[in-house]
Amino acid sequence: AMEKSYMSLFLLLIAISCVLAKEAAKKETKETTAKPKLPQTLSRGWGDQLIWTQTYEEALFRSKHSQKPLMIIHHLEDCPHSQALKKVFAEHKDIQKLAEKFILLNLVYETTDKNLAPDGQYVPRILFVDPTLTVRADITGRYSNRLYAYEPSDIALLYSNMQKALKFLKTEL
Known about the structure:
mainly alpha; Glutaredoxin; signal; Thioredoxin-like_sf; AGR/TXD
């Protein structure tokens, strides 16, 4: 008889711990949904955990004052090439980590600064600007007709170009 009561006590404990776990899980999901995510609008899906600037002017200001290079991604929401690149960019752990060292801006419209369209206003295109506010026209992708375009298959090249943008910075400053 002794064994039987132990058994029922044991089962009771299991039942209680299951209920508690469920409550904890419920609480967790409530908190995560209630906790405001970083404004999706600024990242537009390029990296929701990264800090994105709102305007080109703000980005230049922050780059100059933080001495971090600026990375500008021109893209369009309804462009399949932009969408494909965005997906690979957002899912690439190393790129997302390295991106923290940049002032970041993604634009779905063109700025009036002609330096950001050295060879045309196509999307997607990615340009780097150093803290002296010089557009790094020398950091290019692999296409001679669209120097700042990247395809999803060029993600490793984009990563090394990001490293390049950071490296030159150290040697020049």
